[in-house]
């Protein structure tokens, strides 16, 4: 590897602008005398995609499965998969030319498009990485170094939501708790009735973290959309509170952000904002972006990718664009995703609006059929919503929830995550299980009717999760 990477290190500094980008499709045209269209603008198409074309774009999905779980792994249309394959073949055809002449400008073009989508000041503020967990590692590594190097003191605090994604919670402990931070979790209510409930608990957690003013809060980790249970968090208001209360830095983990909820990083105001592009933005796995807000001081200068390669020290965006020989194609197809989005009425904003309206409608339909309720008000959900399952199913723990999910998948062809909400002291006969349903452009009403009918049949047959324990 040393010789190939050394060659890359010596020669790949000359393609830093969009003018050098030749996509596989454009190179074919250029050979015939055409000038590659490197500055294509993605206007909405005058010919909107039809329902039949949508189903064709996702014809690789298993037709026997009601796939109402886009939130876990996302989806990728055929046209984008084809573009990814072209990039992969471009690499296989002549790897040296691909790595030395094509990769960096192609990644820059994707970064530039992402920056425009989220209102970042510049593509220089955007790094492309594998996933939001990698982005979290970059931010938390940076925070840990502040303890190791004496800028933070042992006992200074970090605050995160109780419902933070499991991998991120473990990363907080692996990086900064190990370095000496005191970690305080924000206890969030569920079901949740209003954003005010979350704001109140966040203020209480900050008070606890400061311990009467004796400690400094160095980092707040805030989800934009929690994963399980799925709730849209009032991030802008929480970031504002952090600024008022003197929290050093704020990282918004928005794994479900772009394509699911509105994202304007300058309006949100966090120091770091990360979102997957393969969940709700139709990219193939795995790719995410990390936005880093520029600060007057040099505090962001020592942000580094956890995989150290030849680009170390050239800035996080450049470091992340080369972490050794690997498949970079998921990072290169953002232009083709934009072309796909342009075929929909209203583009990505129209998709978000319709997905939100549809998932609320389907959630209400299910709750009415089962005599239960939603886990949050409609305004606190994006393209996912929590729906209470009948209490008579006897979901008494996380093992029951997992077994029920597996049973639904294996026996009935329904793919949906199940969340266990422990009953509070004194509660009897309450809803303890919630289904997290998603809605994406490929979904049909029949998917949710199938789920409704299976659960209703369980109820009429006297089924309980205890029957799955054997």
TrEMBL record:
The keyword Kinase does not apply. Residues 23-38 have a biased composition (Basic and acidic residues). This is L-cysteine desulfhydrase, chloroplastic. The gene is CPNIFS3. Keywords: Pyridoxal phosphate. Residues 77-298 form the Aminotransferase class V domain. Residues 1-41 are annotated as: Disordered. The lineage of its organism: Eukaryota, Viridiplantae, Streptophyta, Embryophyta, Tracheophyta. It comes from the Eukaryota. Pfam families: Aminotran_5 (PF00266). It comes from Turnera subulata.
């Amino acid at each position: 590897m040393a010789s190939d990477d050394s060659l890359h290190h010596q020669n790949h500094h000359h393609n830093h602008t969009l003018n050098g980008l030749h996509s596989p499709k454009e190179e074919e045209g250029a050979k015939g005398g055409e000038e590659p269209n490197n500055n294509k603008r993605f206007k909405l198409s005058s010919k909107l995609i039809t329902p039949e074309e949508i189903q064709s774009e996702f014809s690789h999905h298993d037709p026997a499965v009601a796939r109402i779980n886009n939130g876990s792994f996302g989806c990728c249309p055929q046209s984008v998969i084809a573009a990814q394959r072209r990039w992969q073949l471009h690499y296989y055809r002549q790897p040296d030319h691909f790595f030395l002449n094509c990769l960096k400008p192609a990644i820059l073009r994707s970064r530039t498009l992402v920056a425009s989508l989220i209102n970042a000041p510049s593509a220089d503020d955007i790094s492309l990485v594998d996933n939001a967990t990698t982005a979290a590692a970059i931010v938390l590594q940076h925070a840990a170094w502040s303890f190791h190097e004496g800028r933070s003191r042992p006992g200074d605090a970090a605050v995160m939501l109780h419902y933070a994604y499991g991998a991120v919670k473990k990363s907080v402990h692996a990086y900064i708790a190990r370095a000496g931070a005191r970690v305080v979790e924000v206890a969030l209510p569920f079901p949740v009735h209003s954003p005010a409930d979350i704001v109140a608990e966040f203020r209480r957690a900050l008070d606890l973290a400061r311990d009467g003013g004796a400690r400094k809060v160095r980092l707040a980790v805030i989800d934009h959309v929690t994963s399980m249970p799925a709730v849209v968090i009032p991030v802008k208001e929480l970031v504002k509170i952090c600024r008022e209360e003197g929290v050093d830095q704020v990282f918004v983990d928005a794994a479900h952000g772009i394509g699911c909820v509105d994202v304007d990083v300058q309006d949100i105001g966090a120091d770091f904002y990360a979102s997957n592009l393969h969940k709700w933005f139709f990219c193939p796995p795995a790719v995410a972006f990390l936005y880093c807000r520029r600060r007057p001081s040099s505090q962001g200068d020592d942000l580094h990718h956890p995989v150290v390669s030849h680009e170390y020290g050239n800035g996080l965006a450049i470091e992340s664009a080369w972490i050794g020989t690997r498949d970079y194609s998921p990072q290169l197809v953002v232009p083709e995703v934009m072309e796909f989005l342009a075929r929909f009425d209203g583009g990505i904003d129209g998709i978000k609006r319709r997905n939100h309206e549809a998932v609320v409608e389907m959630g209400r339909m299910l709750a009415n059929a089962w005599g239960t309720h939603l886990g949050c008000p409609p305004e606190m959900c994006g393209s996912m919503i929590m729906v209470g399952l009948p209490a008579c199913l006897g979901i008494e723990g996380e093992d029951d929830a997992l077994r029920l999910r597996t049973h639904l998948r294996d026996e009935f062809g329904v793919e949906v995550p199940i969340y266990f909400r422990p009953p509070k002291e004194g509660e009897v006969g309450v809803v303890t299980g919630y289904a997290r349903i998603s809605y994406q452009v490929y979904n049909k009403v029949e998917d949710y009717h199938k789920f409704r009918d299976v659960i209703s049949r369980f109820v009429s047959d006297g089924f309980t999760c205890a029957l799955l324990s054997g």
